[in-house]
Amino acid sequence: MSRNENDPLFPNGKDDYEGEDYDVSQLEEHSHRPPQLVTQPRRYKDGTSIDWLYEEAAERERRRQIHTLHGLRGLLTLVSNSAQMWMVIVATGIGIGVIGAWLDVLVRWLGDIREGRCDRGIFYNQPVCCSGLDSGEICTSWQTWSEYLNVTSILGQSLLQSLIYVALAVVFSGSAAILVKTYAPYAFHTGIPEIKAILGGYVLDAFLSAWTLLIKSLGLALAVSSGLSLGKEGPLVHVSCCMARLLSKLFRQLRQNEAQKRRILAAAAAAGVSVAFGSPLGGVLFGLEELDTLSGETDVMWRGFVISVIAAVSLQYIDPFGTKKLVLFGVSSVTDDVWRAFELIPWITLGVIGGALGSLLIKLNVRFAVYRRNSALYQWPVLEVIGVSAITAAVSYLVVFLRVQSSELVANLFVECEPSRPDYHGLCNPTALWRNVFLLVLTALTKVFFTAWSFGMMVPAGIFLPTIAIGACLGRAVGLVTQDLHRAYSDAWIFSACPSEQTIPCVSPGFYSVIGAAAMLGGVTRMTISLVVIMFELTGALSHVLPIMVSVMTAKWVGEAFGKEGIYPQWIALRNYPWIPPHEYRDRDGRLTTASVMCPVSQLVVIEGTKTTLGHLEQLVRSYDFNGFPVVQEEIFLGLVGREKLRLALEQLLSERSPTELAQECTFINTYAMSEPDLIDLSSLMEVSVLELRTEVPLELVVNTIQKMNLRQILFTQQGKLMGLITKSDIVDLLTVHLPHRAALADFVENRRG
Amino acid sequence: MSRNENDPLFPNGKDDYEGEDYDVSQLEEHSHRPPQLVTQPRRYKDGTSIDWLYEEAAERERRRQIHTLHGLRGLLTLVSNSAQMWMVIVATGIGIGVIGAWLDVLVRWLGDIREGRCDRGIFYNQPVCCSGLDSGEICTSWQTWSEYLNVTSILGQSLLQSLIYVALAVVFSGSAAILVKTYAPYAFHTGIPEIKAILGGYVLDAFLSAWTLLIKSLGLALAVSSGLSLGKEGPLVHVSCCMARLLSKLFRQLRQNEAQKRRILAAAAAAGVSVAFGSPLGGVLFGLEELDTLSGETDVMWRGFVISVIAAVSLQYIDPFGTKKLVLFGVSSVTDDVWRAFELIPWITLGVIGGALGSLLIKLNVRFAVYRRNSALYQWPVLEVIGVSAITAAVSYLVVFLRVQSSELVANLFVECEPSRPDYHGLCNPTALWRNVFLLVLTALTKVFFTAWSFGMMVPAGIFLPTIAIGACLGRAVGLVTQDLHRAYSDAWIFSACPSEQTIPCVSPGFYSVIGAAAMLGGVTRMTISLVVIMFELTGALSHVLPIMVSVMTAKWVGEAFGKEGIYPQWIALRNYPWIPPHEYRDRDGRLTTASVMCPVSQLVVIEGTKTTLGHLEQLVRSYDFNGFPVVQEEIFLGLVGREKLRLALEQLLSERSPTELAQECTFINTYAMSEPDLIDLSSLMEVSVLELRTEVPLELVVNTIQKMNLRQILFTQQGKLMGLITKSDIVDLLTVHLPHRAALADFVENRRG
């Protein structure tokens, strides 16, 4: 606390603001320092939060300066300025489309190689190896490993196949883990929690490096094809953001401004989802709903839309699966595309199961993650990955539905039984009903366990696909049971809406799979609209959008009964990122007030603005690493001075002077400096964008203001006097205080004040 | 201006805020007035804006009071509290589903009756009348009017048919206009601009009355079936909102709180779109993108999702068209669902046409609306409707594509030519190419003119369907030309991607229609994502989502070159509603600053807070109708006192006293009142949620803060001193100043200050 009670009360500070145009450079002219201090881009350390208002102001200033340029130069600058943003958008869209396609091909090949090889060359995957055959012809080019090595005994064949299957799983996952651990630790996990935090203003530049891009792509292919229970969807969003970040480094306007950087990232995230699911609309909506950054900013939404389209077009052009379609898991409906009211019962049941099991999966995953950090496993991440993948592979080899890759399983569960199609492992055999149901439930439960464990290990891992697979198994099981009930009691009144001819199937178990998948995803991610859009872009089941909506609705309701947060906010809390959930804060019992959350002025480090010394300021900057210091005159609040700005100014001022001049006096009041020429005028160091509220203001409004305006702090004044301060960190603490494992995996310790 | 320069400078006002819990009732206890003054719902006159912060605070306080109730009563209140909201949601969803279905049936019947009647009874429409026939059998039950009246000569038939056609058009539209003019003037037009404004905080209770609901539904059916170039989509949103408003009147929490009321309305609007297009997802996204109210508020988005599903399920259950599908204009694809790169050329062309023609339509419509208001037509709205519908009917009867209802035209343009399907007016005849193209373009241009005129007359009118019809005609024309080019030059390299067999069609003109419709809608409404979703929920053309996105993208770009605003913001500006566009404000040339937009303190009516008289306050309230008055002490800003709150308090205080006590002194400083017991303490009248900024703050941030926080005003202080004020109206003026016809159709004159 530095107060000089003897300073004059009221300088006549009127003529420095009235009718004066706001202009950073003009403000600078008043001061003793060169102007580059403000126009210089502000640097943030990893682990801090950006100052949105500052970044937005800097961007506006840059844009305004472009508009002041005249003639050809002005026009060219203007054009190149908007062209740069769009170039990054287009290049990222194309790039992520290419990477997505390349990943599909790589994963497919690596997965196939675990079972056999092509005699036309090892680099062919099974479909390519067997292409060009007439239907019905048997593919002889593709050989299992036992065929290739001429093992004839059945026991020998099984042993050899399973050994290679497990061994390659271990090799793949192990190399993924080593790559991640050695070259890019931030390439582990899904990346979506980090992206949410970054888009909210968190600074974590290491997370979006070129190494991360490379390792995450490569590791992802290895991890997915090792058969670990994880998907590639979330990580693709991360990869897409890395790529956008790299490309935007080419242009100064995008490199230097943190707000612009985040706008590009928000659009790139949409492209990631677009490619991951072949779902351009779903991508935009994912950005809108889950990342919550596009809202309000129509420009960003629009760019997300464009980048999504470009990414999807690139993917479709490359066409990695050779289907010429974006729809990944096409649903073939053999029924008349009409659903009956009684089906709402199994569908709502699936919603309930999805909500409950999703919450269980979240809880298990958090528990496992905390256990991992606190146990010996934390020291041996690669060993853990190898062990888990060996166990996963061994167990998976035993259960027929687990053995194939999740995407293949899902694709087969989504389609209906048709005479023209080969029966997938006896799924369509009505006499094997209970065996199928048992196998499906077993598969689902095993996957819940493995997913809860694997999601968080030292490999790139997405949670979408495993969740879809779990839901699809359960959905199919419920569908099979419903179908059997209909077969057995087709005359019951509840089935009266079914067509009377027994030949027309009434219940489509494949579609129940889709419902189950949607419900399970709803339970885990708590998304709603974007989820529905992704599901039907994924399946093409547009006619069944209502049942999907109903089940997602139920899943969300049931899930929220077990805890409001989905898996991503849970991980954000685990890692203690300063991210504020978008939903409305409600202080139910009214115990907390703004005054009780606020850091009162008596505990703040404030600067007496009338007169102080450079030495004192220098000491403040050295002693505290708060983001800024409030400046007061008596108790009247004058403004806020940012720590970084102050540090730079002091550095310059003190380097010009001899060290003995630490006693040189300075002031933050402009008019005061004019009347006393000895004083150095620091008034232009104060932030212009400072929000003040009264202390009686409801806490909910404070939270809401910080949420919506992306503020780092709000100052509280009463009759002009400074009363206290609330920072973003205070709000994050307030909103995450109910989560049990908060900050259990934190890397950075946040500055709590200032 | 009321300043008393002799008042003491600094009262020690510390102990009335520090650590004190914020509690409305507690604050009340300090004062001389009974507490109901604050807990009473605030009333707003039509034409004003609500105080969001106040309403939110009131709602939070209500919720908090419920949570303080204990035992069974507390539980019951809690349950009934959330049940009420959901009951309104469910009932509105079902209600609008029923109304939508009923409207479909009514419009169909009224439309058919213009051409003939059913001999099984006049109340059958054509499809019902002809149902139950085997395919190929000719429907004899349905008779044209000339058949019914046994007119045999061809001339007589034509004359009679056209006469009845025109006469009934006049009767229908005339009665619609009379109904609207007599009973519910607010039932005219689409209603979406008003809903946007209301959701933003505008007060217009007459707009959502029971009469409006009834007249709009009825008038809509009459207007649409009269063949005027208008649709029922926008008005259905209005009807849905009316219904939600009526149902929410049943419950006090929804009736009394303006913020809660708007949350229900936002959800209801989604249901309207859901039913209008059979597009539940599109409804939610429409709310998100066009109404821009759901953003940020996950609760509202979620309710919109639920209500959309319920409305769509109800509509599907009633199944007015007997198709058992929600998809209105099903697209049948005869091609292999794959599109070729060369097709991007015609599609982007369609995007350009849609963007340009859409802008033209907007411009024409605004011109016509302004002309109507300033000409003699304004006195004779019913006559205008009758005249225009007679002309429309007469012209429409001559052009084969105009004669049918727009929905029928669109449905036929969207389907492909197939041998199994009857050829629609020779559209599939390749030899009649140029006749078809001419007819389609003629239809489109006629419709542009008629739509531009009709949208704004004294009848309920939506712009979606006519726009879709215009776009579909142009799309089909472009498709036909492309198809012909392919036929003629099938060996050209540009068509090399087409299948080599001539029997497989390469170009699908029906799908070009869909693209054209999407582009045109994009040009007129400037929606993007919601538009794409609506288009493919409307057509089921999920596999072609990319081309639709590309054309909408192009249309938006081209459209924005002619002006940023879509048709709804233009109408909002025409009617001068205080609505702030959601997009970011950019002051390109930097001429405007906060200080130049701000109303400086010298022009404000301020209250000297230290000591004033009841008489003076009473005179202020009587003389000015600003929303509030700033209270200052010397120049230091103390707070803002709302006019309504002040008026009520004064009423009560003065009614207790004799009129001579107008000289009774009062103060707004709590501690001051304590030391001088004669003074009446009015400090609790001051608003708690007041936002203060510095005057140097960039104007963009001011606009952004008012946008995001839904503020009515921002106060500017400097070192505690009040400098000025910017209100929502100032910002609306700032953002609409470039629109030429701003306020040309305004009903209310806004308060400019306070």
From TrEMBL, chains A, B:
InterPro entries, sorted: CBS_dom_sf, Cl-channel_core, ClC
Domain of life: Eukaryota
UniProt KW keywords: Chloride, Ion transport, Membrane, Transmembrane, Transmembrane helix, Transport
Signal peptide interval: none
Annotated transmembrane regions: 83-103, 163-183, 264-288, 300-318, 338-362, 382-402, 437-455, 461-482, 527-546
MF terms (GO), sorted A to Z: voltage-gated chloride channel activity
Protein's cellular compartments: Membrane
Membrane topology note: Multi-pass membrane protein
GO CC terms in record: early endosome; Golgi apparatus; plasma membrane
Annotated stretches, region: Disordered: 1-40
PANTHER family for the chain: CHLORIDE CHANNEL PROTEIN
Name this polypeptide is given: Chloride channel
Source organism (scientific name): Thelephora terrestris
